[in-house]
Design a protein that fits this description.
Blueprint lengths: L3 H21 L12 E7 L1 E17 L4 E4 L5 E5 L7 E2 L4 E6 L1 H36 L5 H33 L2 E3 L4 E6 L6 E2 L8 E4 L4 E8 L11 E4 L8 E5 L10 E8 L10 E18 L4 E3 L2 E8 L2 E6 L1 E5 L3 E6 L6 E5 L10 E4 L8
Parallel strand pairs: 1-22
Antiparallel strand pairs: 1-21, 2-11, 2-15, 3-10, 4-6, 4-9, 5-8, 6-7, 8-10, 11-14, 12-13, 12-15, 13-14, 15-20, 16-17, 17-18, 19-20
Amino acid sequence: MNVRGPLLFIATVAVAGMAVAACGAAQPETVTTDTVVPVKTEAAQIGTIRAHIYATGIVTAAPGADLLLVAPAPARISELPKSEGDRVRRGDVVARFDIPTAVADVGRQRAEVGRAHARLQNARVAQTRAHELFDRGIAARKEVEDADRELADAQADLTGAEAMAAAAQAVAARSVVRATFDGIVVKRLHNPGDLVEATAADAILRVIDPARLEVTASVPLADIRRVKTGAAARFAGDPSQPRLKVVSLPAAVDPSTTSVPVRLSLAAPAGLPVGTPVQVEIDAEEHAGVVLVPRPALVREGEQTAVFVVVNEKAQRRAVRIGVSDNIRVEVTSGLEAGELVIVDGHAGLPDGAAVTTQAPTAGTST
């Protein structure tokens, strides 16, 4: 019997089976390529960078440049000479009111002043008479003291009546309202003949000075300590608009809020109406003598940040820690040295250790 043939067949099948089994087992994937990837690089540099805080804001009128007209007392509007969009000059009449209670109060207080004058006159006559009778030994000292007291009370009564009359006259004078600055009527909420209450909820019209506008920005609570009065700012993404400057920070902060209002002045009129929502960029802390790389050099994978450094014509992935950044550059606080070449273009999907050929970035890639 020829035994070698079957044994050789069995051995061949066994080897084939082992090969199949080996093929079915999970093997680590190894990516190898001889392709040289063209990339653009730039050297990490030592420099100075300014951090920025980004916030949403709204265009508002500056203090003293916003007049919300409210009736001085419950009244009827007798005249509203200005309409929405009309310009007004300082001193122009913007409203007249009929205030019946004010007119009646002025008459009543004037009558009180007259009564007080009469009382004072009578008190003076009585005092003179009491002193004459006392000098002649006819009147008692108590009568003189009573006359002096009455004169003093009458004088105080007149002073109080005159003050009340002046106050009533002031209220009546407020029936005519004049503009306190040059501006524009941006809202008119009533018409002549309307009955109005003396509350802001029942305002008549609103006048603003478009030359004195500012931005009120909502800065995140976590960043408010980084904002300083006088710091420069700008409209984010719109270099055509005028520069901004921080002019006021709140004196107190509610820790339960998520944002804090910050006032920014405009270096020139922005041409934006009140109420326009805007995005602002406020200068914060400055870091000098730090390692800087262009923003496109960063590679983010989950919570980790890395760059690709070219070493011996190979792309070497380097985990880094970053600090502050602006629109162009990023501070690297660890993982990279000044002078090392980082890839700024061509690193998308690039494996660690890939062969690369480098070229300088085109104009505009970084500064």
